[in-house]
Amino acid sequence: MLSNSQLFDWAGQLAMLGWFTLVFLPRRWQLLNWVPGYIIPLALSLLYAGLILANFFTVEGGGYSSLAKVRALFSQEELLLAGWVHYLAFDLFVGAWIARSADEIGLSRLFQAPIFAATLMFGPVGLALFLLIRLHFTRDIKAMS
User: Fold this and answer.
1) What is the CB neighbour count within 10 angstroms for residue 136?
2) Cα–Cα distance for residue pair 124/34, rounded to 1 Å
3) Section 117-124 average pLDDT
4) Are the C-beta atoms of residues 11 and 44 closer than 8 Å to each other?
5) Do residues 36 and 96 make contact, with C-beta atoms less than 8 angstroms apart?
6) Distance, CA of 18 to CA of 95 (rounded, Å)
7) 0.90 cut: is pTM over it?
8) Which residues have a Cβ under 8 Å from the Cβ of 63 and sit 6 or more positions away?
9) Mean pLDDT of 125-135
């Protein structure tokens, strides 16, 4: 069985493969789009499910109804790892959605890369950045029509 440290490393490397695919590989190949958009987030989600289901009910005083209960959950290494994997899965899934949406509106990869970096490092900040850019970009396109 893999240690928590090994699972952490494996999950991070898998997520980085997804981000590498989004930034550097062509999106014209539909199957390749599935890697960061579905396959890797699914693998990470299954790891998360295993970690959370095996450990969630083992923490006394743990739960989601208060900050103290969430702190108690994250005091257990397996659940801290589950929380990290949760971030990796969702941030990559959102990044793949951003990539698809950015391609649809014709946003250059040069502009997409910093949005991906923000999404990888700060999740919702990258999403907010893209939503604001998309709003501005699509408004400009409509004004030119």
Assistant:
1) 10
2) 22
3) 97
4) yes
5) yes
6) 9
7) yes
8) 69, 70, 72, 73
9) 96
Joined tokens for residue 78: 């397996």
> What spatial distance separates the first Cα and last Cα of the chain, rounded to whole Å?
59
Residues constituting the chain:
145
Q: How many helices (H) and strands (E) in the chain?
A: 7, 0
Please name the amino acid found at residue 89: A
The average confidence (pLDDT) of the chain is: 94
Q: Which amino acid is at 56?
A: F
At 90, phi and psi to the nearest 5?
-70, -40
Contacts with 76 (C-beta within 8 Å, 6 or more apart), sequence order: 55, 58, 59, 62
How far apart CA 92 and CA 120 sit, in angstroms, is 7
The count of other CB atoms within 10 Å of the CB of residue 44 is 25
Query: Over the stretch 56-114, which tens digit does the pLDDT of each residue have?
Result: 999 999 999 999 999 999 999 999 999 999 999 999 999 999 999 999 999 999 999 99
Query: Residue 112 and residue 108: Cα distance in Å, rounded?
Result: 6
